[in-house]
Every structure is written in C-alpha cells, then in structure tokens.
Here is the input.
Amino acid sequence: MKKEKPKHKKSKNKARKIIIIVLTIIFITSIIAIALHLYKMNKEKQSNENILEDVKIDTEQVTEEKTERMLQLEELQKENQEIIGWLEIKGTKINYPVCQAQDNSYYLDHNYKKEKATGGSLFLDKDFNLDKPSTNYLIYGHRNKNGTMFEDLIKYQKEDFYKEHKEIQFTTIKEDSTYEIIAVFKSRVFYKNEKNVFRYYYFINAESEEEYNDYISNCKKASIYDTGATAEYGQQLITLSTCEYSQKDGRFAVVARKK
Here is the structure.
C-alpha cells in the first residue's frame, strides 16, 4: 500500500509552487514594463528627430534679418505659443525647440507639442523676461538614456570635445544668434543653510554691473578648464543646465556669451 506524503511536505510543495508562480508573474510583468518603457523612449526619440522637416515655410521670405530658422520657429509657435526658441550645438544631438511655461516643472514630462513625454523638453526658466529680455537665458533639460535632450551636454567634461564644439546657436523669433562658450563646470543644488556657495541656477537677470561680473567670475573659477574666453557687462548670456550623477543633486552647466 502506497504511503501518503506527510501534510507538512504537501504544504511546503504548495508554497513553493505559489512562490514560483508569483516570481514568474513579477518577472514577466517587469519584462513587459521595461519593453514598454523602451518603446516609449524610442518613440519619443523619433518624434524629436527631424522636427523641422515637417515645418513648411516660404523660402522667398528668408532674408538676413529673418532667417530660415526664425521663420520655422514662427510656424512652430502656431502650434504651441510656449515654444520660445530653438537651440542647436552643431556636431551633437542637441537640436531642439525650447519652451517656457509658467512653472519649471511642466516641460519636465511634456514635449514641445504639450504631450506627455518621459524625456521632457528643453525649457527656459520661468523667470526669464522675453520682452526685455533678461540677462541670462537659463535653459534646462534632462539627460535621457536614449541620447536625447541634454545627454550630449555632459561631453563638455572633456576639453577636447569643447575645442571641437565651442559655439551654441540659439534662435528666437527676434534674432538668430551665435554664442561662444566661456565656462563649463559641475555644481549641485545647495541647501538653504549653506553659505558662500555659487547658486548659478538663480542668475536670470543682473541688477547691476557688479552682479553680472560676479556671475562671470564665479563661472570662470568653477570651470573645469580655461576656455580663454569671457564676457563683458551687457553681453547676453546663455546657461545650459542638466543633471550630473557623481554627487547627490549634482548639476552640470555650460555658459556662453553672445558673439
């Protein structure tokens, strides 16, 4: 006569089966989630590539005062008035529209079409006054693993890369301008109680020549290498800011002045 398995062994076997089933479900769910995330990021990447190819303009309207990029920007603004400019660094993947919202969080997870997007958009600090304009175009962007937005910005850690990419092109509907890089540095978001630190991310508009010169001086001191270039009071500035992962709340910034 066949002996029955003890009840405690049956319970153990049943528990193992349940654990295996649960782990299998978790594994499959994780794989699906990863696949969906990669699909979404790839789709976002494709939507951010060759944006201007679909923008139709009358090339006969192109003049020295109104460039092709400025006309394209005007067309894009018909779809979204919050698109305030276009940023390009030749020889990199940085070639995107720049938006500005009433806060500095909306475009962290929305694209230039105002659609939900994990990779977000490049966006201008909410406090920049486009009517004046303010002293410093402070532009933020994510570093995305699919290579989009400001992922290429971190390459400026290497001086050799800087030497091959010294200029930034920034276009608004009023002007199409070239900026020369003057400083590249690492920083972080400082705590409120920290004193005598350089909070570059607060500098939007200089209230005085001293404030302007202090910003330039601090940028040059913090710079990873000497670019040999600087800025004088009154020159329009642009600061590109993204995350840097060697420290908690790390930041990486590239500062340039209008040529």
